[in-house]
Amino acid sequence: EVQLLESGGGLVQPGGSLRLSCAASGFTFSNYVLSWVRQAPGKGLEWVSIITGSANNTYYADSVKGRFTISRDNSKNTLYLQMNSLRAEDTAIYYCTRRTSFDQWGQGALVTVSS
Amino acid sequence: DIQMTQSPSTLSASVGDRVTITCRASQSISKWLAWYQQKPGKAPNLLIYDASSLESGVPSSFSGSGSGTEFTLTISNLQPDDFATYYCQQYNSYPVTFGQGTKLEIK
Question: Which of B50, B95, B99 sits opposite A47 (nearest CB)?
């Protein structure tokens, strides 16, 4: 069974940093493109970033470019999102997802940016 | 960036109805479109990919069509479990973008 399990969410002050992790199981991790998608409270879905299976290529939404870094460790079957210079508007549930048509989703990690 | 526009934003329907949700792209995305269902407090669930391919395990009451800039999601014989919010998403180019969502409500 495919599973994606996010961790690392929490409350952080504006300007602070946080690192999310997504532990994967049930599939050959290195074969798949992975993304982070977020959803602010009561709002729609927003794609954040994507990384290829080999980690050779990454792409970001303009709203996070230069502040967030996506990475992966294929030996640990884990995806990461390093979030720096956090803003109130980054408050959201962050989901890790598989493929470009997101066929698998984690349960989400809540990130709250507030003083 | 490719803008995705869904209509309607809210749709009221009854059990047993057939409903259609439309998604328009600001430029051609070929067939690279997906549809998701999301229920409150849950992660989205993939229904349709490549515009018209039904994801494994999704009921055949869901169907997708279209190509280029205009796409539709049709749900036939609405069941109580189908009342949720639906999103389209293009993956033709980065940044990946979503429609704003369509909330399907019970009439």
Answer: B95
pLDDT-based confidence at residue B16 (cuts at 50, 70, 90)? very high
The C-alpha atoms of residue A64 and residue A67 are separated, in whole angstroms, by 5
Nearest CA in chain A to B31: A101
CA–CA distance, A55 with A73 (Å, rounded to integer):
9
Quote the minimal CA–CA distance from A34 to chain B in Å: 13
Q: Which residues of A touch B98 (CB under 8 A)?
A: 44-47
Asked if B6 contacts B99 with a C-beta cutoff of 8 angstroms, the reply is yes
Give the per-residue pLDDT at A114: 97
In 3D space, the residue among B68, B82, B100, B76 whose CA is nearest the CA of residue A39 turns out to be B100
Across the range B20-42, mean pLDDT stands at 98
The residue length of chain B stands at 107
pLDDT at B17: 97
